[in-house]
């Protein structure tokens, strides 16, 4: 039988993302840490302020719990390159909270804006 993690424990992990995430970055590569996300691989970001980037945890599919990001329509592109990844950070405490792949890569140019559809971060319960 598989181990199962309860909703309360999963929600507390996702609430850390919901409550502390203040910026979402677009990156060239998967960041391994905060510096990679905000500097080494960063091509741009959207500053939401703490608590503004994600909604409350809900039911995940096919199991577990999930938080959905806010859609970005006016992200600031700070460097020219090809965005392939996203990174969620807590700038106040210099933490990389989560990262993943964009649905499709996108060439971006410094000084422009970027958009990003809402995406989910899911913690499975088994």
Could you give the distance between the termini?
A: 10 Å
User: Numbering strands along the chain, what is their spatial order in the largest sheet?
Assistant: 7-6-1-2-5-8
Binned, the helix content reads 10-25%
Task: List unreliable stretches of 5+ residues.
Answer: none
What's the total count of β strands? Answer: 9
The helix tally amounts to: 2
Count of individual domains:
1
What is the string of helix and strand elements?
HEHEEEEEEEE
Q: How is the main sheet built?
A: 6 strands, antiparallel
Radius of gyration, whole Å: 15 Å
Structure in words:
- The protein is α+β, with helices and mostly antiparallel strands and 126 residues long.
- The protein has one domain (7-123).
- It has two helices and nine strands, in the order H-E-H-E-E-E-E-E-E-E-E.
- The strands form two sheets. The protein has a six-stranded antiparallel beta sheet with strand order 7-6-1-2-5-8.
- Strand 3 and strand 4 (65-68) form a beta hairpin.
- The longest helix has 14 residues, at 7-20.
- The protein is elongated, with a radius of gyration of 15 Å.
- The protein starts with 6 loop residues before the first helix and ends with a strand.
- The mean pLDDT is 96.
């Amino acid at each position: 039988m598989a181990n199962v993690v309860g909703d309360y424990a999963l929600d507390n992990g996702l609430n850390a993302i919901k409550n502390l995430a203040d910026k979402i970055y677009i990156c060239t590569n998967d960041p391994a840490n905060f510096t990679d996300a905000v500097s080494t691989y960063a091509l741009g970001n959207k500053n939401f302020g703490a608590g503004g980037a994600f909604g409350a945890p809900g039911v995940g599919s096919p199991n577990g719990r999930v938080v959905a990001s806010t859609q970005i329509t006016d992200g600031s592109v700070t460097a020219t390159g090809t965005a392939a990844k996203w990174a969620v950070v807590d700038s106040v405490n210099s933490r990389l909270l989560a990262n993943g792949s964009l649905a499709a890569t996108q060439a971006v140019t410094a000084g422009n804006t970027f958009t990003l559809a809402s995406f989910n971060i899911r913690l499975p319960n088994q």
